[in-house]
Amino acid sequence: MIKRILAGVAAVGALGGLGFLYYAWYPSIAPVPRPAASSFSAAQIERGRIVAAEGYCAECHTRTDMGGGPELAGDYKMDTPFGAIYSSNITPDEKTGIGNWSEAAFHRAMHLGVSREGEHLIPAFPFDHFTKMTDQDISDLYAYIMTRPAVSMAQRPNELPFPLSLRILQAGWKLLYFWPGVYKPDPRHDALWNRGAYLAEGNAHCGACHTPRDFMGAEKRSSDYEGAVVDNWIAPPLNEHNPTPTTWTEDELFQYLRFGVAPLHGPAGGPMSPVPHRFLSTVPEEDVHAIAHYFADLDHASERQGHDKAALALAMEQSKAGLIGPNTDPDAKLYQGACAACHYNAAPTPVLGRPDLALNNALWLDEPTNLYQVILHGLTAEEGQSGIAMPSFYNALSDQDMARIAAYLRRTRTTLPPWTDLEKKAAAVRKTVQHVPVNSSH
Predict the structure, then answer these.
(1) How the cofactor binds, per note (predicted)?
(2) Residue among 226, 133, 227 at smallest CA distance from 180
(3) Residue 366, class by beta-carbon neighbours within 10 Å (0-12 exposed, 13-18 middle, 19+ buried)?
(4) H helices present in 27-126, as ranges
(5) Which residues contribute to the annotated binding site for heme c?
(6) Domains of the chain: which residue ranges?
(7) Alpha-carbon distances, residue 351 vs 310, 356, 436 (angstroms)
(8) Is the pLDDT of residue 325 over 50?
(9) How far is CA 377 from its chain centroid?
(10) How many CB atoms are located within 10 Å of the residue 48 CB?
């Protein structure tokens, strides 16, 4: 009897294994000669350029360490909890890039996360978002990429330990987390909302940075847009749980995404900075409006902004109060000497080039990470608001100084509990800064 049970279990296991192999196996698609640029129309290439910009392709497929690398030639290092992963060369070089990929192979990679050779792609490449893209957008993107300069450059090998390095195991990840299929418009919403949802959920893959991940590296679908840690910065929540005292309205979102600065919330910094400056500033304005419209609905902006007027007035009063009259608070004096000259505001609203910290995400998050990152990195004239820079205080402020400023701002500009272990956290963030920026304050 026991032998029969064991034999039955073995048979079920074998069938399950065969079923998994059948599910996991994809054939190789034959290589093709690199398509001639003349085979694509100028209109299709331009549409593809827009698709590439809205998907930030160059951001993750261009090396930034080791002195940088050619655009789209890959080798961008992505640090993950499982080990470093290096992006692929997606220029049309036939040996180290994708120049010998047919359009069918390109479509399969985007929609199913499978390479031309039939290997499963690691989900650091967000095919779980790209699967929502239309065939037309993917064809246009193919035309754009195949007409870029071909660059011969190989990527460094991924640093995933065995057995995570086995590509076939990615099929198991897909069984658990991947639901392929093009975006289906929601009939409950208008065309602008659906365009924004299509872009945000698909090509722009906003959730890849703004949604927390589980122990398997998959986005937590129950926590969409709740915020996450990305490249040692915190990508804040994009839903109604964003903690800033003034609402991210559709106009604030549009200004931020299009120009890199929102009047009431301040400039884009860190990993977010290239999104408006390198990419969304170059696409049709109506697409940026659509993304802003979608997220304004997602965060229930119209229902929540009734308190904004009072919150804005309070922020202006707090900013003014910190500079008027004698002040015996040593932390306030440190803030005044280092920060207040550029961050002081008076009623009725902040000056665009003078972000008010009481309204900024950095002070209202659970950790002071983003505040410390901006203090240490600063913002160049190409980041944040165009043409306006903030110097780095990497050399000018110690970890203790930064902790004092953080404590002072948290207790005087927010209604939230104080942060803890501030000096220790300042030291930890400083370690993530790889070099002292050239505009560093002395």
Answers:
(1) Binds 3 heme c groups covalently per subunit.
(2) 133
(3) exposed
(4) 42-54, 57-60, 103-112
(5) 57, 60-61, 206, 209-210, 339, 342-343
(6) 2-177, 194-442
(7) 18, 8, 29
(8) yes
(9) 18
(10) 23
